[in-house]
Design a protein that fits this description.
Elements (H helix, E strand, L loop, with lengths): L1 H48 L4 E7 L1 H4 L19 E7 L19 H7 L9 H16 L8 H14 L2 H7 L12 H12 L4 E6 L5 E11 L16 H11 L3 E2 L6 E2 L14
Parallel strand pairs: 4-6
Antiparallel strand pairs: 1-2, 1-4, 3-4, 3-5
The structure holds 2-acetamido-2-deoxy-beta-D-glucopyranose (2 copies).
InterPro entries: RNase_T2-like, RNase_T2-like_sf, RNase_T2_His_AS_1
Family: Belongs to the RNase T2 family.
Subcellular location: Lysosome lumen
Amino acid sequence: MEMRCSLLVVVSTALLLLRLSVVMVTAGGAREADQHGRRGSALQDEKTFCSWRCLMFTLQWPGGFCLSLNNQSLCRIPPSVNGWTIHGLWPQTQSCCRCWPMFPSDVQELEEELSEEWPSLLKSRTSFTFWREEWQKHGSTAACVEGLNSPLRYFQICLKLRAQLDIQRFLEDAGITPSCDQPYQVEDVRRVLAPHLGDHPEIQCITDEQGRQVWFQVKIPLSRNLTVGCDSHAEAGGGFWEKSALDSSTSPGHPCPSKEPFYYVPIEHQQPFRPCG
Ligand SMILES: *[C@@H]1O[C@H](CO)[C@@H](O)[C@H](O)[C@H]1NC(C)=O
Ligand SMILES: *[C@@H]1O[C@H](CO)[C@@H](O)[C@H](O)[C@H]1NC(C)=O
């Protein structure tokens, strides 16, 4: 009697489990289908947005940057900033999404260093706003690569690259220093930078009010694995240089002309928009 009773319990428990598992399988099935759906579109996104091969690491020279602004009184160069600063690290593709929010706490531990190496040079924009714009527009697309897949990692890598690509020192070692009087030839600068930045950095100038060429930016192509140089022609469909040409139509800069000397103006903290008095 006791045994039958416990058998009954076992059987009914088994039935209950069976029924439960049917429910679970059904729910699981629905969940899985849902996941497949999402996984499907995520795969599609990954194909579209994660297939980039090259990145552009862009550094700006604060002295020249201030002269690139329409309203030069908007410019400020923090006292601690005395060298090339980061503009951004840009995968060469369209932006995948702007829906990955970033908060000050994400980069809190880097804040001091970022403020020095990646300051906003606009009075109207805080440095954090600049970082967040760069993360949302470019960083979230770079996040396809392990090691770049969070704001903290992305900014850490950018700081590492900045330390490694010390343009000012490379130039200084070759006797090329900021000057109001001494113009330079783009070919000389290219030759000095080639061992460090590869053969194809874009050396960008703006034309100042006196019609002189002023150096303000360098775009350094990197491969997906962050080594300097990227063979854009190996990319299926090409488009890398075309796209960057398109980009430059909205930016004030242009390649420094090879036939005209250009100025590498000093950083003037008090009057950043009048570096040469
Ligand atoms: C330039 O910016 C300053 C500071 O924001 C402003 O006061 C001034 O009106 C601006 N000038 C022009 C021409 O937009
Ligand atoms: C990085 O990628 C480039 C291009 O794909 C390749 O030629 C190079 O060997 C890679 N370097 C390292 C260290 O993996």
